[in-house]
Amino acid sequence: MFTNRIIDLSRAETHVTVLSKPSDNFINGLAVGDIDGDGFNDLIFGRVAGGPTNVSLLLGPFRPATTYNLASMEPDIVIRDSFPGFDGFGYAIAVGDVNADGISDLVIGNPVVGREGFDAGAVYVFKDSPALVRGLSPSVAQPLLTILGAFGGSDFGLGDGLGRVLAVADVNADGIDDIVIGVPSSIRVSNGLPGPLPARHRSPLVLLRWVEW
Ligand SMILES: [Ca+2]
Ligand SMILES: [Ca+2]
Ligand SMILES: [Ca+2]
Known about the structure:
Order of helices and strands: EEEEEEEEEEEHEEEE
Largest sheet: 4 strands, antiparallel
Bound molecules: calcium ion
């Protein structure tokens, strides 16, 4: 039994390590799930790699005591935003079977997708597809569903920033995974009218359940 144990990564031996290219970076989004339905969990992560952000997948199983160095190998799958030019695709990533077909799906946020000049943000749902299962790399992936955040207007021009925070789980216990979306930048004014200061500041969590998309 571990009690108040501290692990110092500078001294610990990791089971599996994934290294970015020296010129690249991983970004916030990170998730684990069996996207291709082969029974082995896969690793999904957002990254900046010489251009707009993308979401990359390494398909399991992972060999123990192995370093996967992206300086000398490519990820199995790379997904790029279908709205190029907004550099936040993969800021948040979650995995779950949201359409109840038995295979995990990918839910990806891009909080800087703009609408009329404001960071409204968007959340995409990518169904397991033949392209994903075969490990192809669609340069522009077509999501099964796109959820757009609200833009500025009476929200003081901030936009919702949808896609910064995500979770997928069966919240309402109907056996189907639901999508939970945080809206961190949402600012509303009282009675819906613009004013000099927000009368209240709400950061809602939104729950979406599957409805035959
Ligand atoms: Ca897998
Ligand atoms: Ca599914
Ligand atoms: Ca549910």
